[in-house]
Automatic annotation (TrEMBL):
<feature type="domain" description="NAD-dependent epimerase/dehydratase">
    <location>
        <begin position="18"/>
        <end position="254"/>
    </location>
</feature>
<feature type="region of interest" description="Disordered">
    <location>
        <begin position="148"/>
        <end position="167"/>
    </location>
</feature>
<dbReference type="InterPro" id="IPR050177">
    <property type="entry name" value="Lipid_A_modif_metabolic_enz"/>
</dbReference>
<dbReference type="Pfam" id="PF01370">
    <property type="entry name" value="Epimerase"/>
</dbReference>
<dbReference type="InterPro" id="IPR036291">
    <property type="entry name" value="NAD(P)-bd_dom_sf"/>
</dbReference>
<protein>
    <recommendedName>
        <fullName>NAD-dependent epimerase/dehydratase domain-containing protein</fullName>
    </recommendedName>
</protein>
<dbReference type="InterPro" id="IPR001509">
    <property type="entry name" value="Epimerase_deHydtase"/>
</dbReference>
Length: 394
């Protein structure tokens, strides 16, 4: 492992040394690309358990995520911290430390056992946070989720209730936020993100698009129907804006000890969200336009049944679509090379729970302005084009 830039170069001397935990994850690789392409760091190091060669990297991410910048390690283990954090000394022998540490790591799968999230998310955050504090890192940015809030259609602010997180993943992310806040000397900044989408996206948008492709292929045509209703909030953020927001947060946190006009002991937490107030109705309209299929919403009777039998409903949907998706892939000659795409629905993400965030604090305090203001037909079409470039799209 090397670190691709030369800190001895006078042009780089004033730039921060940057460490990204979970650097090959979806947000991590876009953050690495943002930093690398704009030459923002004197040193850039990505840490991940998986290798770049196995990470299905897009061509534009190859340079930022190259082996020159990469270290394979399990960041949840205390024994790995020295390898992860140690840097070569300055030319004059002075010790070097990372300035900014971004934790984009943690368990991203849904519906896992609590112990999995406790070790891979909560444990990872606290282990890395303690090391960052010990070394005097100038900004530690923790990537969290808007799913920590109690479901509400009203946009949630940073001080609103978090007693009923939507998912087990969110429950342990919230526990990590609280644990990190208790580490003495840690210059912590927590960012709570909504549903992140963009080129090469899997998870929420990838699942939705794979489902739409299955419905598009069916004869006779069927209506693609959502549970719950058109008003259910599914707030969004483009991954490029997420990367930009992370960088702005680190720069701001390195210069500031507290949020202006906030109590001295208030945790530094920001929501980061676009301007779109995205809902299921938003997505249904976009899917209809792109795929030329009818979309709609289930009636009250079906929704009532689903609330009582969600696991059964999700299993039925998955049984109904997974074989069709596999057939589409086979016909297109891409079986086994579908990247992160699958119509497999996660029960935790199908709950009748609004994800609605107020991003005003991050905009007013840090100066964030999303470049992708809302999810549109054009934005989603660009995501599909990214799948085609990777030969993932049937």
């Amino acid at each position: 492992m090397g670190d691709s830039t030369d800190p001895a170069d006078p042009a780089n001397a004033a730039k921060p040394a940057v460490l990204i935990i979970g650097g090959l994850g979806y947000i991590g690789r876009f953050l690495a690309h943002h930093i690398h392409s704009q030459n923002l760091a004197s040193t850039l190091r990505l840490v991940d358990k998986q290798l770049p060669q196995l990470a299905s990297l897009a061509p534009e991410h190859q340079a930022a995520c190259s082996t020159a910048n990469f270290l394979q390690a399990d960041a949840s283990r205390e024994a790995s911290q020295a390898r992860i954090f140690d840097l070569p000394a300055h030319p004059d022998g002075r010790k070097r430390e990372f300035d900014y540490v971004f934790n984009c790591g943690g368990e991203t799968r849904f519906s896992q056992e609590d112990e999995v999230y406790k070790v891979r998310s909560y444990g990872l955050s606290l282990t890395v946070g303690k090391e960052a504090a010990r070394r005097g890192v100038r900004a530690f940015v923790e990537v969290s989720t808007g799913h920590v809030y109690n479901p509400s259609r009203t946009p949630q602010k940073e001080g609103d209730k978090t007693s009923k997180p939507h998912t087990k993943q969110a429950k342990w992310k919230l526990a990590a936020e609280e644990g990190l806040a208790k580490i003495p000397g840690l210059k912590l900044c927590v960012l709570r993100l909504p549903l992140v989408y963009g080129p090469y996206a899997g998870r929420w948008l990838g699942t939705l698009l794979a489902l739409a492709r299955v419905y598009q292929s069916r004869e006779p045509k069927e209506t693609m129907k959502w549970l719950w209703g058109s008003e259910l909030r599914t707030n969004t953020l483009h991954v490029e804006d997420a990367a930009m927001g992370l960088w702005l947060a680190a720069e701001w946190r390195a210069r500031n000890e507290r949020i202006p006009n906030a109590p001295a002991n208030e945790r530094i937490v920001f929501n980061v969200v676009d301007k779109g107030a995205t809902s299921q109705g938003t997505m249904a309209a976009i899917i209809r336009q792109i795929f030329g299929i009818e979309t709609g919403f289930q009636n009250t009777l079906v929704n009532t049944f689903a609330r009582l039998n969600l696991e059964h409903v999700v299993d039925e949907v998955n049984d109904d679509t997974l074989d069709d998706w596999a057939d589409l892939q086979e016909e297109a000659g891409i079986k086994g090379n579908g990247g992160p795409l699958s119509p497999f629905m996660e029960r935790e993400l199908l709950r009748d729970a609004d994800l609605s965030l107020d991003g005003g604090r991050f905009e007013s305090v840090v100066g964030f302005r999303p470049r992708h203001e809302r999810i549109t037909k054009e934005e989603v079409q660009a995501v599909i084009e990214s799948y085609k470039r990777m030969k993932w799209w049937p």
